[in-house]
Protein backbone atom coordinates (compact mmCIF):
# COMPACT_ATOMS: atom_id res chain seq x y z
CA UNK A 1 0.00 0.00 0.00
CA UNK A 2 1.01 3.62 -0.48
CA UNK A 3 2.71 5.29 2.45
CA UNK A 4 0.87 8.63 2.47
CA UNK A 5 3.26 11.42 3.38
CA UNK A 6 2.10 14.16 5.71
CA UNK A 7 3.56 16.80 3.38
CA UNK A 8 4.13 16.24 -0.33
CA UNK A 9 6.06 19.03 -2.10
CA UNK A 10 4.54 20.12 -5.40
CA UNK A 11 6.21 19.83 -8.79
CA UNK A 12 3.87 19.26 -11.76
CA UNK A 13 1.12 21.07 -9.85
CA UNK A 14 2.95 24.40 -9.51
CA UNK A 15 2.45 25.81 -13.00
CA UNK A 16 -1.26 24.86 -13.34
CA UNK A 17 -1.95 26.32 -9.89
CA UNK A 18 -0.40 29.68 -10.68
CA UNK A 19 -2.06 29.72 -14.11
CA UNK A 20 -5.38 29.98 -12.27
CA UNK A 21 -6.78 33.49 -11.86
CA UNK A 22 -9.93 34.99 -10.43
CA UNK A 23 -11.46 35.38 -13.89
CA UNK A 24 -9.71 32.36 -15.41
CA UNK A 25 -10.01 29.47 -12.93
CA UNK A 26 -7.81 26.66 -14.21
CA UNK A 27 -10.48 24.06 -13.49
CA UNK A 28 -11.89 21.03 -15.31
CA UNK A 29 -15.66 20.60 -15.22
CA UNK A 30 -17.20 17.25 -16.20
CA UNK A 31 -20.91 17.72 -16.96
CA UNK A 32 -22.92 14.48 -17.04
CA UNK A 33 -26.61 14.44 -17.86
CA UNK A 34 -28.33 11.31 -16.64
CA UNK A 35 -31.55 9.81 -17.97
CA UNK A 36 -33.42 10.52 -14.71
CA UNK A 37 -33.34 13.08 -11.93
CA UNK A 38 -30.32 12.69 -9.67
CA UNK A 39 -30.88 10.99 -6.32
CA UNK A 40 -28.87 12.92 -3.74
CA UNK A 41 -28.36 10.10 -1.24
CA UNK A 42 -27.07 7.78 -3.96
CA UNK A 43 -24.70 10.47 -5.20
CA UNK A 44 -23.42 11.22 -1.70
CA UNK A 45 -22.64 7.55 -1.11
CA UNK A 46 -21.02 7.26 -4.54
CA UNK A 47 -18.78 10.27 -3.88
CA UNK A 48 -17.66 8.89 -0.50
CA UNK A 49 -16.76 5.52 -2.01
CA UNK A 50 -15.08 7.16 -4.99
CA UNK A 51 -12.84 9.38 -2.88
CA UNK A 52 -11.69 6.36 -0.85
CA UNK A 53 -10.21 5.14 -4.14
CA UNK A 54 -8.40 8.43 -4.85
CA UNK A 55 -6.59 9.52 -1.66
CA UNK A 56 -4.12 11.56 -3.70
CA UNK A 57 -7.00 13.88 -4.66
CA UNK A 58 -8.12 14.23 -1.01
CA UNK A 59 -5.57 16.89 -0.16
CA UNK A 60 -5.29 20.51 0.92
CA UNK A 61 -2.72 23.11 0.00
CA UNK A 62 -0.11 24.14 2.57
CA UNK A 63 3.21 26.00 2.61
CA UNK A 64 6.14 24.85 4.71
CA UNK A 65 9.63 26.32 4.79
CA UNK A 66 8.78 28.44 1.76
CA UNK A 67 7.62 25.46 -0.32
CA UNK A 68 4.09 24.64 -1.43
CA UNK A 69 2.80 21.13 -0.98
CA UNK A 70 -0.21 18.94 -0.32
CA UNK A 71 -1.19 17.39 3.00
CA UNK A 72 -3.97 14.82 3.51
CA UNK A 73 -7.47 16.23 3.86
CA UNK A 74 -9.76 13.92 5.83
CA UNK A 75 -12.83 16.16 5.62
CA UNK A 76 -15.57 14.97 3.21
CA UNK A 77 -15.55 16.15 -0.38
CA UNK A 78 -18.50 18.48 -0.88
CA UNK A 79 -21.65 17.41 -2.75
CA UNK A 80 -23.62 20.56 -3.51
CA UNK A 81 -27.30 20.62 -4.45
CA UNK A 82 -28.50 23.25 -6.90
CA UNK A 83 -27.08 25.30 -9.78
CA UNK A 84 -24.71 27.44 -7.65
CA UNK A 85 -20.97 26.75 -7.72
CA UNK A 86 -18.76 26.13 -4.71
CA UNK A 87 -15.40 27.92 -4.53
CA UNK A 88 -12.67 25.27 -4.67
CA UNK A 89 -9.98 25.33 -1.96
CA UNK A 90 -12.28 27.41 0.25
CA UNK A 91 -13.86 26.66 3.62
CA UNK A 92 -17.14 25.94 1.78
CA UNK A 93 -15.32 23.20 -0.16
CA UNK A 94 -13.68 21.85 3.03
CA UNK A 95 -10.40 23.09 1.52
CA UNK A 96 -10.57 20.46 -1.20
CA UNK A 97 -9.47 21.26 -4.74
CA UNK A 98 -12.40 19.30 -6.14
CA UNK A 99 -16.14 19.14 -5.52
CA UNK A 100 -19.28 17.47 -6.85
CA UNK A 101 -22.69 18.98 -7.43
CA UNK A 102 -26.03 18.07 -8.93
CA UNK A 103 -29.05 19.85 -10.32
CA UNK A 104 -32.11 18.13 -11.78
CA UNK A 105 -30.65 15.36 -13.99
CA UNK A 106 -27.09 16.75 -14.12
CA UNK A 107 -24.04 15.55 -12.15
CA UNK A 108 -20.96 17.79 -12.15
CA UNK A 109 -17.37 17.10 -11.14
CA UNK A 110 -15.19 20.18 -10.68
CA UNK A 111 -11.49 19.59 -10.15
CA UNK A 112 -8.42 21.82 -10.22
CA UNK A 113 -6.27 21.27 -13.30
CA UNK A 114 -3.32 21.26 -10.92
CA UNK A 115 -4.50 17.93 -9.52
CA UNK A 116 -4.94 16.17 -12.84
CA UNK A 117 -5.89 16.44 -16.51
CA UNK A 118 -8.81 15.10 -18.52
CA UNK A 119 -7.38 11.58 -18.50
CA UNK A 120 -7.14 11.51 -14.72
CA UNK A 121 -10.53 13.15 -14.22
CA UNK A 122 -12.17 10.55 -16.46
CA UNK A 123 -10.98 7.79 -14.14
CA UNK A 124 -12.73 9.52 -11.23
CA UNK A 125 -15.91 9.80 -13.29
CA UNK A 126 -15.79 6.12 -14.25
CA UNK A 127 -15.59 5.14 -10.59
CA UNK A 128 -18.29 7.60 -9.55
CA UNK A 129 -20.76 6.44 -12.19
CA UNK A 130 -20.19 2.79 -11.33
CA UNK A 131 -21.16 3.40 -7.70
CA UNK A 132 -23.92 5.89 -8.44
CA UNK A 133 -25.68 3.87 -11.13
CA UNK A 134 -25.40 0.67 -9.08
CA UNK A 135 -27.40 2.27 -6.27
CA UNK A 136 -29.63 4.69 -8.18
CA UNK A 137 -30.92 2.08 -10.61
CA UNK A 138 -30.45 -1.04 -8.48
CA UNK A 139 -28.31 -2.43 -11.28
CA UNK A 140 -25.58 -5.05 -11.20
CA UNK A 141 -22.79 -3.48 -13.25
CA UNK A 142 -19.58 -5.04 -14.45
CA UNK A 143 -16.53 -3.52 -12.80
CA UNK A 144 -14.02 -4.48 -15.49
CA UNK A 145 -11.08 -2.03 -15.56
CA UNK A 146 -12.89 0.43 -13.27
CA UNK A 147 -10.92 1.59 -10.24
CA UNK A 148 -12.78 0.79 -7.01
CA UNK A 149 -12.45 1.46 -3.30
CA UNK A 150 -10.26 -1.17 -1.68
CA UNK A 151 -7.94 -1.51 -4.66
CA UNK A 152 -4.25 -1.50 -3.92
CA UNK A 153 -2.82 1.75 -5.26
CA UNK A 154 0.56 1.21 -6.87
CA UNK A 155 3.43 3.71 -6.69
CA UNK A 156 3.09 4.13 -10.47
CA UNK A 157 -0.34 5.68 -9.91
CA UNK A 158 0.71 7.85 -6.98
CA UNK A 159 4.15 9.23 -7.78
CA UNK A 160 4.85 12.17 -10.09
CA UNK A 161 6.96 10.93 -13.04
CA UNK A 162 7.83 14.39 -14.38
CA UNK A 163 10.84 15.15 -12.10
CA UNK A 164 12.58 12.02 -13.39
CA UNK A 165 13.07 13.80 -16.72
CA UNK A 166 16.18 15.79 -15.91
CA UNK A 167 17.52 16.59 -19.39
CA UNK A 168 17.71 20.19 -20.50
CA UNK A 169 15.59 21.04 -23.56
CA UNK A 170 17.18 21.94 -26.89
CA UNK A 171 17.94 25.57 -27.51
CA UNK A 172 14.89 27.48 -28.65
CA UNK A 173 14.93 28.27 -32.34
CA UNK A 174 14.79 31.71 -33.87
CA UNK A 175 11.38 33.37 -33.99
CA UNK A 176 8.95 32.30 -36.68
CA UNK A 177 6.20 33.99 -38.65
CA UNK A 178 3.34 35.26 -36.43
CA UNK A 179 0.38 33.00 -35.68
CA UNK A 180 -3.14 33.96 -36.70
CA UNK A 181 -5.03 35.43 -33.74
CA UNK A 182 -8.75 34.62 -33.87
CA UNK A 183 -9.85 37.53 -31.70
CA UNK A 184 -7.98 40.24 -33.62
CA UNK A 185 -8.78 38.82 -37.06
CA UNK A 186 -12.53 38.93 -36.33
CA UNK A 187 -12.39 42.23 -34.43
CA UNK A 188 -13.67 40.64 -31.23
CA UNK A 189 -11.53 42.55 -28.72
CA UNK A 190 -14.65 43.92 -26.99
CA UNK A 191 -16.52 40.59 -27.13
CA UNK A 192 -15.55 39.02 -23.80
CA UNK A 193 -18.60 36.85 -23.07
CA UNK A 194 -17.10 33.40 -22.60
CA UNK A 195 -19.37 30.99 -24.44
CA UNK A 196 -19.66 27.27 -25.21
CA UNK A 197 -21.07 25.91 -28.47
CA UNK A 198 -21.65 22.16 -28.55
CA UNK A 199 -22.06 19.65 -31.36
CA UNK A 200 -22.85 15.95 -31.23
CA UNK A 201 -21.87 13.52 -33.97
CA UNK A 202 -22.68 9.84 -34.31
CA UNK A 203 -19.61 7.88 -33.25
CA UNK A 204 -19.89 5.17 -35.91
CA UNK A 205 -20.24 7.67 -38.73
CA UNK A 206 -17.26 9.78 -37.65
CA UNK A 207 -15.06 6.74 -37.05
CA UNK A 208 -15.97 5.33 -40.46
CA UNK A 209 -14.94 8.64 -42.01
CA UNK A 210 -11.69 8.58 -40.02
CA UNK A 211 -10.82 5.07 -41.18
CA UNK A 212 -11.43 6.05 -44.78
CA UNK A 213 -9.30 9.18 -44.49
CA UNK A 214 -6.42 8.00 -42.27
CA UNK A 215 -7.56 10.28 -39.47
CA UNK A 216 -8.41 10.24 -35.75
CA UNK A 217 -11.07 12.26 -33.90
CA UNK A 218 -8.50 14.79 -32.72
CA UNK A 219 -6.71 15.22 -36.03
CA UNK A 220 -9.87 15.49 -38.13
CA UNK A 221 -11.39 18.14 -35.84
CA UNK A 222 -8.08 20.04 -35.90
CA UNK A 223 -7.97 19.81 -39.70
CA UNK A 224 -11.59 20.91 -40.17
CA UNK A 225 -11.01 23.81 -37.80
CA UNK A 226 -7.89 24.80 -39.74
CA UNK A 227 -9.80 24.69 -43.02
CA UNK A 228 -12.65 26.71 -41.48
CA UNK A 229 -10.28 29.44 -40.28
CA UNK A 230 -8.44 29.69 -43.57
CA UNK A 231 -11.74 29.86 -45.44
CA UNK A 232 -12.46 33.07 -43.52
CA UNK A 233 -9.01 34.59 -44.00
CA UNK A 234 -7.57 33.13 -47.22
CA UNK A 235 -5.17 36.04 -47.75
CA UNK A 236 -3.70 36.12 -44.24
CA UNK A 237 0.07 35.71 -44.11
CA UNK A 238 -0.05 34.55 -40.48
CA UNK A 239 0.32 30.86 -39.70
CA UNK A 240 -2.72 28.78 -38.77
CA UNK A 241 -1.27 26.70 -35.94
CA UNK A 242 -3.45 24.28 -33.97
CA UNK A 243 -2.20 22.82 -30.71
CA UNK A 244 -3.37 19.21 -30.28
CA UNK A 245 -3.04 18.15 -26.64
CA UNK A 246 -0.70 15.21 -26.06
CA UNK A 247 -0.99 12.72 -23.18
CA UNK A 248 2.62 12.30 -22.03
CA UNK A 249 2.02 9.17 -19.95
CA UNK A 250 2.96 6.77 -22.74
CA UNK A 251 6.28 8.50 -23.41
CA UNK A 252 7.03 8.58 -19.69
CA UNK A 253 6.18 4.89 -19.35
CA UNK A 254 3.67 5.69 -16.59
CA UNK A 255 0.15 4.97 -17.91
CA UNK A 256 -1.33 4.98 -14.39
CA UNK A 257 0.02 8.38 -13.28
CA UNK A 258 -2.67 10.74 -12.00
CA UNK A 259 -0.92 14.10 -12.44
CA UNK A 260 -1.56 16.72 -15.10
CA UNK A 261 0.72 15.39 -17.85
CA UNK A 262 -0.28 17.24 -21.00
CA UNK A 263 2.06 18.26 -23.80
CA UNK A 264 1.62 19.72 -27.26
CA UNK A 265 1.52 18.51 -30.85
CA UNK A 266 1.73 21.39 -33.32
CA UNK A 267 -0.34 21.13 -36.50
CA UNK A 268 0.34 23.89 -39.01
CA UNK A 269 -1.98 24.24 -41.99
CA UNK A 270 0.74 25.25 -44.41
CA UNK A 271 0.22 27.03 -47.70
CA UNK A 272 1.43 24.06 -49.75
CA UNK A 273 -1.13 21.77 -48.05
CA UNK A 274 -4.13 23.80 -49.09
CA UNK A 275 -4.17 22.75 -52.75
CA UNK A 276 -4.52 19.07 -51.80
CA UNK A 277 -7.86 17.30 -51.25
CA UNK A 278 -8.98 16.60 -47.71
CA UNK A 279 -7.86 12.92 -47.62
CA UNK A 280 -4.29 13.98 -48.42
CA UNK A 281 -4.44 16.76 -45.85
CA UNK A 282 -5.69 14.28 -43.24
CA UNK A 283 -2.74 12.01 -43.98
CA UNK A 284 -0.38 14.98 -43.61
CA UNK A 285 -1.84 15.93 -40.24
CA UNK A 286 -1.71 12.32 -39.12
CA UNK A 287 1.95 12.20 -40.14
CA UNK A 288 2.72 15.28 -38.07
CA UNK A 289 1.10 13.60 -35.07
CA UNK A 290 3.02 10.35 -35.56
CA UNK A 291 6.35 12.17 -35.71
CA UNK A 292 5.69 14.37 -32.69
CA UNK A 293 4.34 11.56 -30.51
CA UNK A 294 7.42 9.37 -30.83
CA UNK A 295 8.76 8.79 -27.29
CA UNK A 296 11.97 10.79 -27.81
CA UNK A 297 10.07 13.76 -29.25
CA UNK A 298 7.38 13.62 -26.56
CA UNK A 299 10.02 13.55 -23.82
CA UNK A 300 11.53 16.67 -25.36
CA UNK A 301 8.18 18.35 -24.77
CA UNK A 302 8.45 17.26 -21.13
CA UNK A 303 11.88 18.90 -20.85
CA UNK A 304 10.42 22.28 -21.84
CA UNK A 305 7.61 21.89 -19.32
CA UNK A 306 10.06 20.90 -16.59
CA UNK A 307 12.34 23.82 -17.33
CA UNK A 308 9.47 26.22 -16.75
CA UNK A 309 8.37 24.32 -13.64
CA UNK A 310 11.85 24.52 -12.12
CA UNK A 311 12.08 28.22 -12.93
CA UNK A 312 8.79 28.82 -11.10
CA UNK A 313 9.94 26.78 -8.12
CA UNK A 314 13.15 28.81 -7.95
CA UNK A 315 11.33 32.17 -7.87
CA UNK A 316 11.59 34.08 -4.62
CA UNK A 317 7.94 34.97 -4.14
CA UNK A 318 4.43 33.95 -5.09
CA UNK A 319 3.90 37.40 -6.58
CA UNK A 320 6.70 36.67 -9.02
CA UNK A 321 5.11 33.33 -9.91
CA UNK A 322 1.75 35.01 -10.52
CA UNK A 323 3.34 37.54 -12.89
CA UNK A 324 5.24 34.80 -14.70
CA UNK A 325 2.10 32.68 -15.15
CA UNK A 326 0.12 35.65 -16.47
CA UNK A 327 2.86 36.60 -18.93
CA UNK A 328 3.13 32.98 -20.09
CA UNK A 329 -0.63 32.77 -20.72
CA UNK A 330 -0.55 35.93 -22.82
CA UNK A 331 2.48 34.63 -24.72
CA UNK A 332 0.78 31.31 -25.47
CA UNK A 333 -2.30 33.07 -26.84
CA UNK A 334 -0.05 34.71 -29.40
CA UNK A 335 1.59 31.44 -30.47
CA UNK A 336 -1.37 29.14 -30.99
CA UNK A 337 -4.42 29.78 -33.14
CA UNK A 338 -6.55 27.32 -31.16
CA UNK A 339 -6.25 24.17 -29.06
CA UNK A 340 -7.96 20.81 -29.63
CA UNK A 341 -8.12 18.22 -26.84
CA UNK A 342 -9.39 14.64 -27.02
CA UNK A 343 -8.88 12.34 -24.03
CA UNK A 344 -9.56 9.27 -26.15
CA UNK A 345 -12.28 6.67 -25.92
CA UNK A 346 -12.85 6.15 -22.20
CA UNK A 347 -15.30 3.30 -21.78
CA UNK A 348 -17.58 4.12 -18.86
CA UNK A 349 -18.77 0.55 -18.74
CA UNK A 350 -22.37 -0.43 -18.10
CA UNK A 351 -23.18 3.01 -16.67
CA UNK A 352 -23.03 4.51 -20.17
CA UNK A 353 -26.57 3.40 -20.91
CA UNK A 354 -27.87 5.80 -18.25
CA UNK A 355 -26.10 8.86 -19.71
CA UNK A 356 -27.83 11.32 -22.05
CA UNK A 357 -25.05 13.91 -22.41
CA UNK A 358 -21.40 14.21 -21.46
CA UNK A 359 -19.31 17.38 -21.66
CA UNK A 360 -15.78 18.29 -20.62
CA UNK A 361 -15.23 22.00 -20.03
CA UNK A 362 -12.06 23.83 -19.07
CA UNK A 363 -10.84 27.38 -18.94
CA UNK A 364 -9.25 28.61 -22.16
CA UNK A 365 -6.72 30.63 -20.18
CA UNK A 366 -3.88 29.94 -22.62
CA UNK A 367 -5.84 30.25 -25.86
CA UNK A 368 -8.74 32.14 -27.37
CA UNK A 369 -10.53 28.99 -28.53
CA UNK A 370 -10.41 25.55 -26.92
CA UNK A 371 -12.13 22.52 -28.45
CA UNK A 372 -12.82 19.59 -26.12
CA UNK A 373 -13.89 16.24 -27.60
CA UNK A 374 -15.48 13.39 -25.65
CA UNK A 375 -16.99 10.08 -26.72
CA UNK A 376 -19.70 8.51 -24.59
CA UNK A 377 -22.67 6.26 -25.33
CA UNK A 378 -22.16 6.19 -29.09
CA UNK A 379 -21.88 9.96 -29.55
CA UNK A 380 -18.97 12.33 -29.94
CA UNK A 381 -19.52 15.64 -28.20
CA UNK A 382 -17.45 18.55 -29.52
CA UNK A 383 -17.45 21.56 -27.19
CA UNK A 384 -16.13 24.85 -28.56
CA UNK A 385 -15.04 26.85 -25.49
CA UNK A 386 -14.55 30.45 -26.53
CA UNK A 387 -13.33 33.59 -24.80
CA UNK A 388 -15.95 35.42 -26.88
CA UNK A 389 -19.58 34.88 -27.92
CA UNK A 390 -19.42 35.43 -31.69
CA UNK A 391 -20.40 32.35 -33.74
CA UNK A 392 -18.18 33.31 -36.67
CA UNK A 393 -15.90 30.27 -36.28
CA UNK A 394 -18.79 28.00 -35.36
CA UNK A 395 -20.54 28.75 -38.65
CA UNK A 396 -17.34 28.14 -40.60
CA UNK A 397 -16.80 24.81 -38.81
CA UNK A 398 -20.38 23.75 -39.47
CA UNK A 399 -19.83 24.46 -43.15
CA UNK A 400 -16.83 22.09 -43.10
CA UNK A 401 -18.93 19.33 -41.53
CA UNK A 402 -21.59 19.86 -44.19
CA UNK A 403 -18.99 19.69 -46.95
CA UNK A 404 -17.70 16.28 -45.85
CA UNK A 405 -21.21 14.96 -45.26
CA UNK A 406 -21.01 14.38 -41.51
CA UNK A 407 -24.46 14.90 -39.91
CA UNK A 408 -24.40 16.73 -36.58
CA UNK A 409 -26.68 18.22 -33.98
CA UNK A 410 -25.89 21.65 -32.60
CA UNK A 411 -27.01 22.74 -29.16
CA UNK A 412 -27.89 26.29 -28.21
CA UNK A 413 -24.88 28.30 -26.99
CA UNK A 414 -24.50 28.65 -23.22
CA UNK A 415 -22.26 30.81 -21.04
CA UNK A 416 -19.08 29.13 -19.85
CA UNK A 417 -19.64 28.51 -16.15
CA UNK A 418 -16.74 27.22 -14.10
CA UNK A 419 -16.32 27.34 -10.34
CA UNK A 420 -13.83 29.76 -8.90
CA UNK A 421 -10.83 28.67 -6.91
CA UNK A 422 -9.50 30.44 -3.84
CA UNK A 423 -5.69 30.41 -3.66
CA UNK A 424 -3.55 32.06 -0.96
CA UNK A 425 -1.75 34.39 -3.35
CA UNK A 426 -5.09 35.74 -4.57
CA UNK A 427 -5.86 37.27 -1.18
Question: Can you tag this structure with a few keywords?
Answer:
427 residues, alpha+beta, eight-stranded mixed beta sheet, five-stranded mixed beta sheet, globular
Describe the structure.
This protein is α+β, with helices and mostly antiparallel strands. The chain has helices spanning about 15-20, 40-55, 120-135, 155-160, 180-185, 205-210, 215-230, 250, 280-290, 295-315, 320-335, 390-405, and strands at about 10, 25-35, 60-65, 65-70, 80, 100-105, 105-110, 195-200, 240-245, 260-270, 340, 355-360, 370-375, 380-385, 410, 415. It is globular, with a radius of gyration of 21 Å. The chain starts with 7 loop residues before the first strand and ends in a 12-residue tail after the last strand.
Structural class: alpha+beta
pLDDT average, as an integer?
94
Helix content: 25-40%
Largest sheet entry:
8 strands, mixed
Helix tally equals: 12
Q: Give the helices and strands as they follow along the chain.
A: EHEHEEEEEHHHEHHEHEHHHEEEEHEE
Total beta strands: 16
Overall 3D form: globular
Compact description:
The protein is an alpha+beta fold and about 425 residues long.
SSE diagram, text form:
Layout: E1 8-9, H1 14-18, E2 27-34, H2 40-53, E3 59-64, E4 67-72, E5 79-81, E6 98-103, E7 106-112, H3 118-136, H4 155-158, H5 182-185, E8 195-202, H6 203-212, H7 217-232, E9 241-247, H8 249-252, E10 262-268, H9 278-292, H10 295-314, H11 318-334, E11 338-342, E12 355-362, E13 369-376, E14 379-386, H12 392-404, E15 409-410, E16 414-415
Parallel strand pairs: 5-6, 9-11, 11-13
Antiparallel strand pairs: 1-4, 2-7, 2-12, 3-4, 6-7, 8-14, 8-15, 8-16, 9-10, 13-14
Helix pairs in contact: 2-3, 7-12
